[in-house]
């Protein structure tokens, strides 16, 4: 069994919590794209973890974790995270953590270029995490990136750094920064690459062999559908493909071996960074946004930036369901809406008075959208920690059903708090089958 977990909105839907929960029933958890721009929070007892590069399955000592070929890996960030997690009592050894030899490395000049690119864009900036993600993927597509396997050869590593830096320094100097020195970069990265060596693996072969042995594999998406470089709100996106097709490429798994796709959807939407957000709560709704931000702790788990908050957008989520082929949905953060008197759901878009039911390609159009809302009554009582669907207030159950119908996909899991056991698994759902293993 191979299941992919994908964020349906603009990220931070609660993928970490759901992966951690499901990981118990699986053998292997693999990331397939992105890098340490992700921040997946998991709470276990009194311990809080924020996973950036490492799959959320790492917390389970008996699970194997994989960093797939589609990822971009900053070796410094990798070992910082490994060391942090070890301090919390989690054992991380090459036996249970595999890094693809085909993944690309994020170098210090990628971080510098991420900064200059954002500065150059000024008001049009993307609002990236400044981790060097975009420039590393640019080098990959430009066929000059440094892959983990290349870096293991000191001569090749040196050569590639020298060659790539010539070009990078031209841009860095143009923006008034000091040029970087190839020797410094090599001397910093070479020992880290040596430390990485025992973790390096032909991960697609590893996953294929595991599948043949009937091992169960979870593919953990980072970022989300609307941040996908092809399908998201381009150019306000990340530089990889979090969508289901990306899982096949980024983990090196044939598409027909993937048995199911789980979408993670919040009861509302958030966005970090710039870019169109049709249902954003602005001006008059700033008080509600503030309430949600505080109740839902909507601050970036990596950058600590306050997340922009908005109403649930059924048009955008239907689009995500269609693109990814969600078999089931995990709906998170029901408890965050507990105090609201009324809850709005965007059921359609209008541009220049004309109703549209699809998600437009052009970010200019997206900015002009007037959301068409339906207003539902809030339940105004606590759902925190509820574990049985029938124990949810009637209005909360209606809200869940309304969302499921408006997306056209079953909701198989409802999250009622950040902890593992604050979860409802819906009876007779596809999700229940995966959970049973
Ligand atoms: P991810 O990037 O998709 O893994 O999501 P993040 O971890 O960045 O952000 C989700 C936040 O919501 C984290 O702080 C989670 O602990 C928290 N969370 C997840 N599910 C729930 C829930 O059902 N209720 C509440 N109150 N918090 C949740
Ligand atoms: P998780 O996995 C939310 C956003 C950034 C920026 C854009 C591009 O925790 O859901 P990048 O540094 O990737 O080039 O930035 O993408 N972004 C995220 N937003 N959650 C994330 O990850 C994100 N990763 C990147 O804020 O708008
Ligand atoms: Mg996150």
- Multimeric state of these chains? single chain
Unreliable residue stretches: none
The proportion of residues forming helix, as a percent range, comes to 25-40%
CATH class of the largest domain: Alpha Beta
Q: What is the count of structural domains?
A: 3
Query: Remind me, CATH topology of the largest domain?
Result: Adenylosuccinate Synthetase, Chain A, domain 3
Identify the bound ligands. guanosine-5'-diphosphate, 6-O-phosphoryl inosine monophosphate, magnesium ion
Secondary structure category:
alpha/beta
Query: Tally of extended strands?
Result: 20
Give the strand order, joined by hyphens, for the main sheet: 9-7-5-2-10-1-11-15-19-20
Radius of gyration: 22 Å
Sheet with the most strands, sense and barrel status = 10 strands, mixed
Overall average residue pLDDT = 96
Sum up the overall morphology in one term.
globular
Question: Could you outline the blueprint of secondary structure elements for this entry?
Answer:
Layout: E1 2-7, H1 15-23, E2 28-31, E3 40-44, E4 47-51, E5 64-67, E6 72-73, H2 75-87, E7 97-100, E8 104-105, H3 108-121, H4 133-141, H5 148-151, H6 154-174, H7 182-196, E9 200-201, H8 203-212, E10 217-220, H9 244-251, E11 260-266, E12 269-271, H10 286-295, E13 308-310, E14 312-313, H11 314-324, E15 328-332, E16 342-351, E17 354-356, H12 363-368, E18 370-377, H13 394-407, E19 411-415, E20 423-425, H14 430-436
Parallel strand pairs: 1-10, 1-11, 2-5, 2-10, 5-7, 6-8, 7-9, 11-15, 14-16, 15-19
Antiparallel strand pairs: 3-4, 12-13, 16-17, 16-18, 19-20
Helix pairs in contact: 3-4, 3-6, 6-7
């Amino acid at each position: 069994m191979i299941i992919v977990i994908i964020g349906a909105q603009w990220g931070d839907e609660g993928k970490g919590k759901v992966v951690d929960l499901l990981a118990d029933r699986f053998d292997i958890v693999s990331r397939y794209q992105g890098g340490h721009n992700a921040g997946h929070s998991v709470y276990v007892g009194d311990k809080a973890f924020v996973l950036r590069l490492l799959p959320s399955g790492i917390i389970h000592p008996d699970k194997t974790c994989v960093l797939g070929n589609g990822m971009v890996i900053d070796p410094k960030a990798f070992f910082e995270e490994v060391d942090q997690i070890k301090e919390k009592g989690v054992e991380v050894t090459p036996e249970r953590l595999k890094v693809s030899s085909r993944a690309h490395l994020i170098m210090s000049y990628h971080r510098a270029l991420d900064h200059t690119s954002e500065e150059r864009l000024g008001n049009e900036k993307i609002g990236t995490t400044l981790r060097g993600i975009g420039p590393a993927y640019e080098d990959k597509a430009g066929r000059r990136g440094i892959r983990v396997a290349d870096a293991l050869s000191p001569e090749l590593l040196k050569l590639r750094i020298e060659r790539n830096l010539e070009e990078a320094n031209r841009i860095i100097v143009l923006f008034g920064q000091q040029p970087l020195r190839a020797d410094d970069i090599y001397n910093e990265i070479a020992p880290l690459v040596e430390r990485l060596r025992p973790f390096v693996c032909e991960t697609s072969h590893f996953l294929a062999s595991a599948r043949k042995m009937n091992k169960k594999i979870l593919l953990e998406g980072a970022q989300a559908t609307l941040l996908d470089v092809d399908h998201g709100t381009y150019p306000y996106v990340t530089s990889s493909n979090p969508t289901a097709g990306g899982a096949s490429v980024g983990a090196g798994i044939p598409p027909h071996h993937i048995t199911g796709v789980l979408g993670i959807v919040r009861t509302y939407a958030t966005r970090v960074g710039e870019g169109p957000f049709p249902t954003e709560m602005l001006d008059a709704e700033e008080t509600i946004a503030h309430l949600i931000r505080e109740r839902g702790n909507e601050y970036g788990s990596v950058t600590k930036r306050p997340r922009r908050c908005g109403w649930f957008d059924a048009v955008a989520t239907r689009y995500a369901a269609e693109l990814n082929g969600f078999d089931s949905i995990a709906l998170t953060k029901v408890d965050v809406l507990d105090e609201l008197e009324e809850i709005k759901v965007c059921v359609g878009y209008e541009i220049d008075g004309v109703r549209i039911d699809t998600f437009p390609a052009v970010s200019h159009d997206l900015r002009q959208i007037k959301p068409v809302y339906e207003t539902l009554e809030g339940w105004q009582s606590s759902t925190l920690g509820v574990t049985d669907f029938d124990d949810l207030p009637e209005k909360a159950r209606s809200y869940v059903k309304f969302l499921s119908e408006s997306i056209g996909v079953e909701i198989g899991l409802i999250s009622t708090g950040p902890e593992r056991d604050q979860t409802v698994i819906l009876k007779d759902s596809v999700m229940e089958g995966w959970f049973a293993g």
